[in-house]
Every structure is written in C-alpha cells, then in structure tokens.
Amino acid sequence: MPVPSTAGTHRPLLRDEVQARLRAAIVDGTLAPGEQVRDADIAQWLGVSRTPVREALLELAHAGLVQTTPGRATIISPIERRATSEARDVVAAMHRLAALAAVPRLDSNTIERMRAANRLFAAALRCGDIDGAIAADELFHGILVEIADNDAIRTVLRLYEPVLLRA
Fold this sequence. Notes:
Blueprint: H1 14-27, E1 36-37, H2 39-46, H3 50-62, E2 66-68, E3 74-76, H4 81-102, H5 108-127, H6 130-148, H7 151-166
Antiparallel strand pairs: 1-3, 2-3
Helix pairs in contact: 1-3, 1-7, 2-3, 4-6, 4-7, 5-6
C-alpha cells in the first residue's frame, strides 16, 4: 500500500517538543544546575510517555545541558566556564557563517527588520532590561540565520545557544 501524501503538512516530533520544553526549563532555571530529574516525573509534568522524554534527554546530553548515567540518574549540568566559552566560540562562528551567506541576499525590508531589532536592543539596554536585550539580540541574529537558510547552521545553533543563554 502506498503511503498517503501529506505534502505541505509538517508536524514536529513529540520528542522535539519535549526537548524544546526541557531546554527552556533548563535555560530559565526552572530546572536548576545539579538538580536530579527522573524521566517519569518529566513525562507526567509534560503529559507524555517516557519514550519522548528519554529521547529528548539524550539530545540534551549531547548539548551538555544534562548529564546522564545509564540506569542511575540524570542531573541538570552545572554551568561551567569552559563549556560556556566553547559554546560562545561555536555560536559566534555559526553567526559569522550565517552573515556571510545572508549579506548577498539582503534587501531593504530585511535591513529594516534588522535595524528595528537593533533599536529594540538599544532600548532594552537603556532600561536595564536584560531579557529584552537578549530577545532583541536573538531576533537580530535570527534574521541573518533565516536569510542564510542553512540547516546545518540552525542545527548547531539549536545545540549550543542554550548553553550560552543559561549562563
């Protein structure tokens, strides 16, 4: 039997949704460094089975956000200077590549979007709004990543930006 065509519809995997929720909870401090987490508790919290939680924790371990010991415990990784420094270097390199790819494709609308993000950034700094400044910075750089349209860059940034954001 042929597989039905679902062209034009894309539904994210449950594992990816769980991973995004856990990543956000780690970055915002809901799940604190050194805290032990159990997949059953997370599954109950998010209203999912343990399988997507295990898969998400494995991906978060690759990013260095959690540390797992098979058959034992999973803990939220401590914030370490070296890991943060290495992530900063990788993220900077990816943003540089995105900018190099995006610049030839920039149009006046895109440049205005970047200027608007920069104005938001400056306003947030003047008000001492760190969260607003971070959001505006993400918006600015996200525009270049969007225009560069490089899945490898997006994948690497998804992996390492959270390491910086939690620091």
